[in-house]
Write a structure and sequence with these properties.
One of its GO terms (cellular component) is nucleus. With 768 residues, this protein is α+β, with helices and mostly antiparallel strands. The chain has 18 helices and 37 strands. Among the domains are: 178 residues, Rossmann fold (3-Layer(aba) Sandwich); 113 residues, Beta Barrel (Elongation Factor Tu (Ef-tu), domain 3); 123 residues, Thrombin, subunit H; 98 residues, Elongation Factor Tu (Ef-tu), domain 3 (Beta Barrel), CATH 2.40.30. The strands form eight sheets. It has a seven-stranded mixed sheet with strand order 2-3-4-1-5-6-7, sandwiched between helices. A seven-stranded antiparallel sheet has the order 26-25-30-31-24-29-27, with helices on one face. A six-stranded antiparallel beta barrel has the order 32-33-36-35-34-37. The chain is extended.
Length: 768
């Protein structure tokens, strides 16, 4: 017989012999076995030595960070940027500027030779061996203050000596800067003598920013100055110089400039290189300042906040006048003669073959998609299903193909915009108010459900705000519930929705039914890998300018309207960009509401992401860890929400501020950070269709008011049903022609239960 699996197989006898050397050599075929190295040859460190080695590495990194912070304003580094921000309308910033100038003209400080510009003035303190550049925002607008605080090394808040040290505008500025992230900060006030107001001011600041709002207890350095200030009263300057420096992480990874001088050259160069002055609107724009943060690559793009992205033509390294003053003081010989400062001037030009382009959107090709020709069987089936139409006499077949034979065909072929205009009347029964939700899913609001808190609003309240409050309140009571239209088939109204067996585990292809706007954006194969590669990319020394250089940057094709509309008192900043940051993609932000505001999905908001500022219509969704994320119709008052927009690419870390524009100003409504860049993130909108159990017979029930015709019931028959009391079931069959249907559930229903059907569709940001 043939042996099976139960046949006994004995082990082979171990005879105890070993292979000979010739057999081993034949098996190895010339390969030599690696010998184990001894500890003294391998220099393996013991546990104590390894601990000491790690401690040395940590100490070296800590010293590098501290050395970088201590070099601010010292030696050949750029001056220490100090921003003066008033927090009360009664504070006179000119008095503080005069006080700083008075200190700067003392015998211990170098004289200020540079003229006063929007970037402030520079003074050199010989006693501290420190250079300071003191400036202030051009206005109390949140955008101007935030742009200035983003590049400042220290922020000094100027408070009032009155009973209220900070007014309402000051609180808005303070909250905006703390949400954005600021460097070292302190407070200062004019006090004639030691006054009990000082203790109240410190208490006010610590109460506003304490342990609850900060990861660590914030110690507010406070300084008071007496009138008139003496020449050698330098405690404020010493306190600013000794502050613990901590700024936004974005500034350490890219170069930036606070513009001290600007010049617009209107015209073009001819073949001989001569500049022609003409009536052109776009030409070269020259900005001058110190390079801070990181090295500047002339082949990369730069960004002017509020102006846009531009290419660099050339960078001229020039002599820093304030640095010469420091060297003159430190290089005075025994005879008292001043030594001249010799600094090399050089010019670096950008390479036209390597410079980055200004491409914002991809060029979509509508014929790029796959085109398939129908088979003969599909053509025959289409001809058999073709319905004869009644057309006027003399109409050709081509003309008859364009005639719609019913209103239902028109609705099936309607566009998304026409579908959104369709109205759904409420059900009968009771006084009801119909309001329009986002994406035009309609909901009825019974007057009895309106909260009694509406009585706190007076008659002068705007009707739009009142309607939005009612919608938001009704959405809290009945989340995502919509009414089925009685005059439109549900299979037509909700044809883009689908049912899911499980929202968490059911598959959903991220490349399915993408909008045409997705052909205009860019996507990374691996965003994290690209970010790490660009951060660690080595730059070419021939096309880079080191940190601390005083340079003049020539920008190409800057519109003249930007220069003419710029206020001379408002400081201007410039930031260098990484590759691909000028291209559009889908950005996701994690936001938390600042205060209490009514923000609806698809509202147009103003975003400040890092150094960029743009407007866009936002899509709000839940911040979950699954593969699908549900849309939030309204911005929740508490918790974190994810906002999705079309915007230029930005590499994190980057803080995000969201404003709601109002007349002449902007209101801060949310704060957060950049989450990720992923066009494949699936954001689904959920709607819930509700029905009422008409008759109940054990596990079977007759449900009505969910649909109003037989065809809709057959269309949504595969979708699972659930109830508010946790029962699950399915549709068995329709009953009659008026929307009644027979359903089976896992257990018997109660008369007060409600039958629900959940449908989903994917939504995308609005291109604006």
């Amino acid at each position: 017989h043939n042996p099976g699996i139960w046949k006994q197989q004995n082990k082979s006898h171990k005879h105890g012999r070993h292979r000979s050397k010739s057999q081993i050599d034949g098996t190895n075929k010339g390969r030599v076995e690696a010998t184990r190295m001894r500890r003294k040859h391998r220099k393996e460190l013991q546990k104590v030595d390894r601990r000491h080695r790690l401690q040395q590495i940590r100490s070296q990194k800590r010293e590098q960070v501290l050395l970088k912070k201590r070099n601010v304003g010292v030696g050949g580094s750029p001056p220490h940027l100090v921003l003066l921000v008033p927090l009360h309308k009664s504070v006179d910033t000119s008095a503080f500027s005069d006080f700083m100038k008075l200190i700067g003209t003392s015998d211990d400080c170098a004289p200020v030779e540079a003229p006063l510009t929007s970037a402030g003035f520079t003074m050199n303190v010989g006693r501290l061996k420190h250079r300071f550049q003191i400036f202030q925002p051009g206005s109390v607008c949140l955008h101007d203050v935030a742009d200035c605080a983003r590049v400042a090394d220290a922020v000094v808040f100027l408070v009032s000596a009155e009973k209220e040290a900070i007014d309402e505008t000051g609180f808005d500025i303070l909250s905006c800067l703390l949400a954005q992230g600021i460097s070292s900060h302190g407070a200062c006030a004019w006090l004639k003598s030691r006054h009990p107001t000082k203790k109240g001011i410190i208490k006010c600041l610590e109460q506003y920013v304490g342990e609850e709002n900060q990861p660590h207890n914030v110690k507010w350095p406070f300084h008071h100055t007496v009138q008139p200030p003496t020449l050698f009263n330098l405690p404020l300057i010493q306190q600013v110089a000794g502050m613990k420096r901590k700024g936004p992480g974005m500034l350490d990874q890219r170069s930036y400039i606070l513009v001290e001088k600007m010049e617009f050259q209107c015209g073009v160069e001819d073949d001989r290189g001569v500049l022609k002055v003409g009536g052109l609107d776009d030409s070269n724009f020259c900005v001058t300042g110190h390079i801070r943060g990181s090295v500047l690559d002339v082949n990369r793009l730069v960004h002017l906040p509020g102006w846009g992205d531009y290419q660099v033509k050339q960078v001229d390294t020039i002599v820093d006048p304030s640095l010469c003053n420091v060297q003159k003081i430190s290089k005075v010989g025994a005879s008292g003669d001043e030594m001249s400062c010799d600094l090399e001037e050089e010019t670096i030009f950008s390479d036209p073959s390597r410079i980055q382009d200004l491409v914002l959107e991809a060029d979509p090709n509508p014929m790029e998609g796959e085109q398939t020709w129908p088979t003969e069987e599909e053509i025959m089936e289409a001809e058999e299903e073709q319905v004869k139409k009644k057309v006027p006499r003399g109409t050709s077949e081509y003309q008859a193909a364009w005639i719609l034979d019913s209103d239902e065909d028109w609705r099936e072929g309607s566009s998304e915009e026409e579908e959104e205009e369709m109205q759904s009347p409420p059900h009968d029964g009771g006084s009801q108010v119909s309001t329009q939700m986002d994406d035009d899913d309609h909901m009825t609001i019974p007057e009895s459900e309106i909260d009694e808190s509406l009585s706190q609003y007076d008659d002068t309240m705007d009707e739009d705000d009142l309607a939005r409050f009612r919608e938001e309140r009704n959405n809290e009571l009945f989340p995502d519930e919509v009414d089925t239209p009685a005059d439109t088939p549900a299979r037509t109204r909700f044809q883009r929705y689908r049912g899911l067996k499980s929202f968490r585990t059911s598959p959903w292809d991220p490349k399915e039914n993408l909008p045409s706007d997705y052909a205009r954006i860019f996507q990374f194969q691996s965003f994290d890998r690209t970010r790490k590669r660009l951060r660690n990319q080595e730059v070419d020394d021939a096309t880079c300018v080191d940190v601390g250089k005083y340079v003049t940057i020539h920008l190409m094709n800057v519109p003249k309207v930007f220069v003419t509309s710029h206020r001379a008192s408002s400081p201007l900043t410039l930031f260098a960009m990484y590759p691909h940051e000028q291209k559009l993609s889908v950005l996701h932000f994690t936001l938390k509401q600042h205060g209490e505001h009514s923000i609806r999905n698809k509202d147009k908001l103003l975003f400040q992401c890092g150094f960029r500022r743009f407007r866009s219509k936002v899509i709000l969704s839940q911040h979950t860890s699954g593969s699908k994320h549900k849309v939030e119709r309204y911005f929740p008052k508490t918790g974190i929400v994810v906002a999705t927009v079309y915007a230029p690419i930005m590499f994190p870390p980057a803080n995000v501020l969201v404003y709601k524009e109002r007349e002449g100003d902007a209101l801060l409504v949310a704060t957060g950070s950049l989450y990720k860049i992923d066009p494949d993130r699936i954001i689904t909108k959920r709607i819930v269709l509700s029905g009422h159990p008409f008759r109940i017979n054990k596990r079977a029930a007759t449900v009505r008011y969910m649909f109003f015709n037989r065809d809709d019931i057959n269309w949504f028959k595969p979708v699972e049903l659930r109830t508010k009391y946790g029962r699950r079931g399915h549709i068995k069959e329709p009953i009659g022609t008026h929307g009644h249907m027979k359903c089976f559930f896992d257990s018997q229903l109660t008369s007060q239960d409600t039958v629900l059907m959940t449908l989903y569709k994917r939504v995308f940001p609005k291109w604006s």
